[in-house]
Amino acid sequence: MDISESKDFLVHTASLKEVRTFSRNVFDKLNLNNDLKDELVLAIAEAAQNVVKHAYKGVEDTSDHMQIKISLTGDQLEIGFYDKGKPVVAENIQHRKLDDIKPGGLGTYFIKQIMDDAVFKKDQQQWVNHLVLTKKI
């Protein structure tokens, strides 16, 4: 079953629950098993939180939007994140050391563990940042 759904969200931590709900609803339509669904929702929530925290430096009173697009073509799942925040320097993105026990800083680690690939693309003219997560399912 091929599918493509997208939705705009306010760039705000309060929108993260809506991001998770949207993602879970799309994955429910695809009849994915619960463990895979939970992992994918986690990866999406972490990426969306990074948009709010880093691309917008945690500024919560913005009226700006980010867009999330989830597509499945054959067995290739693609999740696109689009925003107009601070441009990302992909080389600077890294998680904290795993033995540094403290809250936070592992979102990119979880994303890399769950997804097959995470790439920033420069092909979207109306957006500043375009992150694409892919996974073969």
β-strand number: 5
Helix content: 25-40%
Shape: globular
Assign the CATH architecture. Answer: 2-Layer Sandwich
Which band does the percent of strand residues land in? 25-35%
Helix-strand makeup class: alpha+beta
CATH class: Alpha Beta
What CATH calls the topology is Heat Shock Protein 90
Distance between the ends: 12 Å
Structure description:
The protein is an alpha+beta fold and 137 residues long. The protein has a single domain (3-136), classed as Histidine kinase-like ATPase, C-terminal domain (Heat Shock Protein 90, 2-Layer Sandwich). It is 32% helix and 27% strand. It contains three helices and five strands. Strands 1-2-3-5-4 form a five-stranded antiparallel beta sheet, covered by helices on one side. A hairpin with an 8-residue loop joins strand 4 and strand 5. Helix 1 (16-29) packs antiparallel against helix 2 and helix 2 packs antiparallel against helix 3 (107-114). The chain is globular, with a radius of gyration of 14 Å. The termini are close together. The relative contact order is 0.20. The mean pLDDT is 85.
